[in-house]
Write a structure and sequence with these properties.
Blueprint: E1 10-15, H1 18-29, E2 33-36, H2 43-48, E3 56-60, E4 63-69, E5 85-88, H3 92-105, E6 109-114, E7 118-124, E8 130-136
Parallel strand pairs: 1-4, 5-8
Antiparallel strand pairs: 2-3, 3-4, 6-7, 7-8
């Protein structure tokens, strides 16, 4: 019998430079931090938060988005693994606002596209991970 699931619990992306990636995701998405290692963490706290692997986990609605600094090479969606991550927004206007926000940050993107089922905005993070903003029609 198939496993019955209704949503993703979390996605963790591997990155090459955690400071650079944190700045990008903070600036672009502005998500609240759910878990990070406090700078003054004692040994017990470090052990308890070892699942962070030196990274950060953001709260994304009912899900989590994590960054883990272990990658040694840039992302390539043509290799086995991840193709892209799409973030949902309410409507076409929100996709247009996202494009303007990326423009204000100097983040290159493909422009808003009508794909029939909705609108998408494609862009890349500093490790070349393919990201997308999506709004259904």
């Amino acid at each position: 019998m198939p496993i019955k699931t209704s949503a993703y619990a979390h996605v963790r992306l591997t990155v090459t430079d955690i400071e650079r990636s944190r700045k990008f995701y903070d600036d672009v998405l502005g998500l609240p931090v759910a878990f990070e290692m406090p700078a003054d963490a004692d040994e017990a706290t470090r052990e308890q938060l070892s699942f962070l692997y030196g990274g950060v986990i953001y709260q994304l609605g009912d899900s989590l988005l994590g960054l883990r600094p272990v990658a040694e090479e840039r992302f390539d969606e043509d290799k086995t693994g991840l193709d892209h991550v799409a973030f949902a927004v309410a409507d076409q206007a929100a996709v247009e606002e996202a494009a303007a926000h990326l423009d204000s940050l100097g983040v290159a993107h493909e422009g808003v596209k009508d794909i029939g089922a909705g609108w998408i905005l494609e862009f890349r993070d500093p490790d070349n991970i393919a990201l997308e903003i999506f709004a259904p029609k």
